[in-house]
Sequence to fold (694 residues):
Amino acid sequence: MKLKMLTMFMCMIFLINSTYSMKVVFDTSVGFFGLNNDSSVGFSILKEEMEKKGFDVDNNIELGENAGRIGKTLLKKSNIFVIVNPNRNLSLDELTLLRDFVMNGKKLILICDKPESLKYINIVSEWFGAKFLPYYLGRELQVKNVKFISPMPLCLEMKPEISLKVNCTAKEWKSTWELPEKNICEDEFTIFAGMSYGKGKIAFLGDKDFLMNENITKNMEFVDNILDWLQQGKPNDKIIFSPETLEFLNGKNGSGICTIRIENIGEVTQHLIFKIPEYLKDIIILDTYDLYIQKGEIRFIKVKLVGSSEYSYLQDFIIIEREFGLYKYEDYIEIKVILDEKT
Amino acid sequence: MKKLSIFIIFLFLPIVYTDNITIIYEQAHTGDERGYWYGQGVIESEINDFCLDIGDTEIISFSSNYTPLKREGNKIFFSGNLNHFEALFLSPKISGHGLYKISFILPEINKEKDIEIKIEKVGRIIYSNIHFSEEKDGEYLVLKGKTNEREIKIVFLTDTAYIAFADFLAAGIFFVILIGYFFLKRKEIKAILKKRLKNNKFIDLKEKEQSFYVYIKSKKLFGWENKKFFIRIPYLLISILIIVFLLILAFYSITNSLSKIWTQLGSLKIVIGIGMVLFAIVSSILLVSAKNEKELSLRCGIVGSGVIGAMFASLGYPALILAIITFLLIYFLSKLVLEEELNDHQKTNKP
Fold:
């Protein structure tokens, strides 16, 4: 009994320590500061909020490390290392240290929203297969619940694990201090992306202004999602759809109804969006196209077939887009409609 | 057309406002040594459409409700409607070693500026081109002032450098006094040294050991004598305690203040080394050439008070008072100890 209690106590201590020992270090060697600044344009609320969640947020100066370069001892003390808008070129030694840092299981966040910092940040980001682009996507950009302030898009070599994308028109952006004029293209742009690299993870973020004291309160959920992903990885998101195939026997003017059972056996609340192929929108009708399903919850969706003799045989899919945190996936339910000759 | 509209906007710029500027200088390891990081500044003004001259600074972030329109040299034109603009800026690093110099062009929206500069571990401000009021806030010295000046120039000493500087200055003055005393008494010292070298009688260890042994054995610290209770003050013990205390104090204050800047001293280390050796030689000669007990006490007092005075020189006048007290303490205590020992010696040698 005593041994059991002791083991439990030790486990608790380990758990508390493992949560509290996550050290986030914002690099000052690249000329960034403001974590202790409580003005509207400072970042003290971000620090406070992160510390409330058990992170230990510091910079080179507070750690007594060299404030002018990224060194081995500085990275040794960090679990998550953040570089914001660098104003200098990182040396080959520093780049190698950063790569090894991520390869060995630590996390790196690269943030850039200044065209003036592009040449410096891209030297780092290109080592990890990403590049910040000199495009202006707008002064204020609302993407889901996050309000970005003149964010900078990314170009990625590999498909990221998590990302945040927006459809908009990009303009050529030469300087933070000049209003961009020349339109480049309209496309889907990635503002945030996260991917694994070696044993560690790296996140690229095209805006730092949404983290400022005057903006952070509204955007903290997004920051939490990033930190969750960096800290824990993907949670269990298993959802069971049954049946896996919907089969209808379609009479000449007939119709049919069936129900899809959806059970969330994962550990996160998910947002489901049901998409029917365009040409089937008038034939197959769902009683809801958009729903939130909490963990452990079971929901039912009615699928109604409105009779159509246009097709003697039909096979396609209902696409289910699943979203939680920064993750986005697609699932499919097969639909088969067979014309019943007898009717 | 756009340029014209911008021109018209700035033609009707409103009235007179004041910029509030706050800059913090933190001590940090930069390169291979400890110095100061860049200045971490904030500029704020109650204004809508305006022109910000960034001077020698680099903007880190600015209010989201303002849009930068264009840049002409150091001037950035902003447009907004919040009537409260704020920006974080990075001012240049401070140059120097111990003695530091802040010199750069301030960012400016309006001519009039309320400035607050917080510098970590400042010993003394040597020069400033703007009149600042000074106050302490923990480890920071806060300078506050109002000015129309664009350029800011401040020269200051860090607390460690100030202590070291004051110590060196006081040690130098003390050394000059010691040499002066040595020079004035040179004939007497020469004669006594010659005599003692001839007799080879600097210290009579046997006699001292005997007197100390006798002192410990024969003297009661307290008891009854002639129906009266007495407490005898053990001067020797007190002297030993004071000497040990002073030695510890001297050791820690010298090593502490020097250890912080030792790596930055360069060739000054050799000068300090030579100075210490010279001081030791001069002090030793002065002590061993004392004519009698009284003079030995006097010289002990001079050397001891000089060391203490130099050590605490950064305190200013209190250091002088401390030196005088130390002198009196050493002089009278050693005089008493020597007199007591002499009495003991005479008593034990009585027939």
Confidence is low (pLDDT under 50) at residues 202-214 of chain B. The interface with chain A takes residues 26, 28-31, 37-38, 40, 42, 44, 58-64, 67-71, 76, 84, 86-88, 90 of chain B (CB under 8 Å). Residues 182 and 286 of chain B are 7 Å apart (CA to CA).
